[in-house]
Amino acid sequence: MKVEQIYTGCLAHAAYYIESKGVAAVFDPLREVQPYLDRAKKDNAQIKYVFETHFHADFVSGHLDLKKKAGSKIVFGPGAKPAYEAITAEDGQIFEVGDYKVKVIHTPGHTMESTTYLLIDEHGKEHGIITGDTLFIGDVGRPDLAQHVVSELTEEKLAGHLYDSLRNKIMPLSDDLIVYPNHGAGSACGKMMSKETTDTLGHQKKVNYALRPDMTKEEFIKELLTGLTTPPGYFPKNVLMNIKGYESLDNIMDRATTPYSPDAFEAVANETGALVLDTRNAEDFAKGFIPNSINIGLEGSFAQWVGEMIPDIKQEILLVTYDGKEEEAITRLSRVGYDNTVGFLKGGFESWKDSGKEFETANRISAQDLEEAMNDEKPLIIDVRKKSEYDSEHLIGAINIPLNEINQHLAEFPKDSTFVLHCAGGYRSMIASSILKQRGWQDFADVKGGFEDLSKTSLPKSEYVCPSTML
């Protein structure tokens, strides 16, 4: 049986495609559906079903556009109540895809409607399981998201359901089944996912902490909930979009791909209050940018950081991109529900600069520059990496304000003295720089190359101490 994994690195997301005798199915598709339509066309196949493992939080699914464009039937697991036409399957129900079969296994825990799909080949042999966010490689789905939509679904209740699902529904299955999860390392839907994106169930039973056979439910709940970070603010809003429905990506693209001259761009920004989002890389942004614009570069985890740093999912957005990157930016925004892009700057930042309009720059320094400065000025160093990264190793004397918490800690950034920002490599620190510039801070710099370069200097660094050895 051939199962094609379609992996999107910037979201650490995996969709799946199967086809048999001209009949195809897609599992957990992204918002832009043309790649799935093209794949089916290549096989001269019709996409009969779109299977959803659950109502996703970290992206807006493409199921509605596939239903519209391919006539596909949408399938959810037991208990799902979408606000549009879809099949709500029963536990154990079987769907035929050509000579293949797809069996519904209800596995509540990550969410109550969470479902695993057992794939059965043309010979009747069980091939693998598409697990959604129930089981990852090295991890399981976090149980603290649904309560942001339904308050009585506490993380403890869901963790208990997940324990039962894993023990009663997943672990009894054959060891030779291939596990096909919805996410890999880098996703915020778990806490310790592997970089591998498939594995056998047998191997996961041996190495996945959540599948230890001697684990009690109480131990499972405690271990699962320990170390969970706050989920991104856009997650509940994406869940609601997936439940209630959304506007077609075609309509969004038509509206968003409106080119504006510098004068028109400035006028629209002033009239609408739109956020100016500059998607160029950090180095180019630092050399010149439109005042009050925010930098989140396309070359990084763009959609995730948009979701973290722009609180209002309905915020109107004006884009500054490299030429030819406009549609990519719009698509990646829409993947996480930011559908109100109203246009882009024609000719990019260079057209703004050439028009003689005002622009700003950002101060970047090298790791060596900071090393020399510490001999004299000793500026405050602010590390905007995640707490886990900071705890692993950091410059002695640096304070940690994770990028996604910056708006809650603005008072800790001095306005009467110099400070220096850094992250791991310079991507996140420039996001932080652009936000601080927008809020009026001027006397600071960020370190290009981040901690990767700082670790090579003689600046004193902490050493990680394993908690079990601490007195």
TrEMBL record:
- What name goes with this protein? MBL fold metallo-hydrolase
Asked if the Swiss-Prot or TrEMBL record annotates the protein with the keyword Transmembrane, the reply is: no
Q: Which GO biological process annotations does it have? A: glutathione metabolic process; hydrogen sulfide metabolic process
Give any GO molecular function from the UniProt entry: hydrolase activity
The answer to keyword Ribonucleoprotein applying to this record is no
Q: What SUPFAM superfamilies does this protein map onto? A: Metallo-hydrolase/oxidoreductase, Rhodanese/Cell cycle control phosphatase
* Keyword annotations from UniProtKB, A to Z: Hydrolase, Metal-binding
Q: Which InterPro entries match?
A: Metallo-B-lactamas (IPR001279), Mito_Persulfide_Diox (IPR051682), POD-like_MBL-fold (IPR044528), Rhodanese-like_dom (IPR001763), Rhodanese-like_dom_sf (IPR036873), RibonucZ/Hydroxyglut_hydro (IPR036866)
